[in-house]
Model the fold of this input.
Amino acid sequence: MTEMNTKTGEQPTYLRRMHRREFVKLLSALGLGLVAEQLLEDTFMAHDAPIAQASTGDTKGPYWGMVIDLETCIGCHRCVYACQATNDTASEHLWNILIEDQATFAKPVFVTRPCMHCEHAPCVDVCPVRATYHREDGLVAMDYDRCIGCRYCMVACPYGVRVFNWQENVEPNPQPEAWGSPEVPRRPRGVVEKCTFCSHRLDAAAERGLRPGYDRAATPACCVICPVQARQFGDLRDPNSPASLALKGRQAIVLRANLGTKPRVFYLLPR
Amino acid sequence: MSFTDMLSNIVAVIIFIGGPIIPLLFIAFQVAGWHHQITEPVMEEEGHGH
Amino acid sequence: MVERILKTRGIFWMWCALLLIPIGIGLYSALQVFTKGLVVTNLSDLAPWGLWIVVDLSCIALSAGAFSLSALAHLFGRDNFKPIARVAVFVGLLGYTGAMMCLLLDIGRPERFWHGWVFWQTHSMLWEVTMCITLYFSVLLLEVFPMIVELPLFNRFKWLQNLGHRIHRFAPILAIMGMGLSLLHQSSLGGTYGVVAGRASLYRATMPLLFIVSAVAAGMAFTVQMTLIVQWLKRRVLVPRDVLFQVGQVAGAILFVYLYMRFWDSTAGAYGYVPGRSESDLLLTTGTFGLTFWGWEIILGGIVAGTFLIMARRRNSIGMLLMGSGLTMAGIIANRWNTTMLAFTQPLSTEPVLTNPASVRYLPSLVEWGTALGIVAGLTLAFSLGMRFLPAYKGHTPTPVASSGD
Done:
């Protein structure tokens, strides 16, 4: 029979009865636990600190951005096809989608929507395992080996650009060779994926001495294929990059600016 | 609202509200019936059986 | 008739055997999910969370009795609540088991379930939930462990039983830890939704508050409900009647507090226009969700349930108490369903231009229903076995009232 189980008339609280000392012990243990947590966190964060903490404000080097001209876009879908071909996405699983918007402006416009690579990306904040993160250059990337497929990032993404691999992609790429050939490995079943700004091309560019935005092999496939140059890519810190030049003298918007996500994709309003 | 809309809504009300309530009412009557047939034993506070 | 059947020997095992059918359906459905992937569900990129998340949230909310009643019994000096806290702890353990089974089905890579513990993302609400739920599950295991080792089966392992006694001495400490962890994750489950700025119906600071308050009311009521049903089936008394009435009243009072918050939270939008928010409030109160919102959340699962829970004591009516707690349960499930589904039914805005389809439809697939059924049946089986065999839930034999007429 333990002391606690004894039925007592006056119903003293347990603290008064015997556990004050243990309570103090517990409190100090909690305090120690918090310190330990901080230490552990530092340890775990340490090996990939740059990607976990980078936000574009801090990054040095290029500020990659994409500029899409709503005036010139003719809605030919080539950027959609080239993206699917290059990134080898399953049919219906588009990283870059196109929708005709007839309501917003005086004339109908075609709006294509890749990943916005937000500076304050909600998906990065919510991922419970840091499977989606900011690269050192600030782009939002996915670690397919770490993703557990909880899809919280899809709930949190304000632009709905993320797609989930509901099944293994075993079909041949739906796009004919003309639009490009796969340049990245397919993602396994059960993970989330999204537009990468063709970061594999950007990464290779540095080694090969190419300039993203200028050289075709170093620029996202959707921008390269565009027949009317409605999509421009480049370093927005460089005033002479194709993207910066496209912005000059034009009125540009970002989607859902009120959320403060700071997208890297800018839309030029129709004149 | 068309007639079929109205009908489907009525059916929905019956299913969504009646569905859970009818078994609940049934169980409540059974449980209450038994509980009202008994007087409770005087229970002593005991840890978990010590 | 029911009375006679219940008295028959072997009826318990028939009940268990009967439960194996839905469990089999659940196992078969789960096999489909694990072999073929989530393609067998009706979830989509536009509605990525569905029935499983609703079951998960409901399980956790209905398990909240474990921490709240343990805290009342062990920390706030309500010694007479100890018997019902014991029931609540077992209900809670099973509830969290069910929640974790749901999550295991829901994530695309179930074999990576442990990533949350290794790759910390301290500013993710879901990470906080993961850590708290697993830690709290261990607390519940520790709380239930002493009751399990009391089984005659363990008489040979005296050291286990001694360990059990030793753990039981720390019940108040466990209650503190349980309360801390539960307050954290019950609220941050709401926070998981509340921080999603991109979805107008979810993005509200009230979300964590609504979740914790509703969970406490529902968890207490659900424990009362389960206790009453078990007592009836066992023909034994586990918890004194007055304690049940008292817990019912506390649950009813908290339910009314919650109801008041929920009512204003979802209707205040009608007094002004907030982009997105006003549309979602309209969708909730008059649109697709009007029936489940007004019918279940507000009227039956709110006002009626709360009134029953509070009035039952004065009327000395067990029937009222059971109806009240049953309706509370239904109301809370409806709430979790509405909250989850509303988020995806409302089209995602990409203002100032349109880039998204107009509306999203989701109804769970047969496989999803099958797994949910299997999980509920599995929990029911475990609960039945526990209540039947664990010495802590042996109960007391009541004496029949002489004037009852038979």
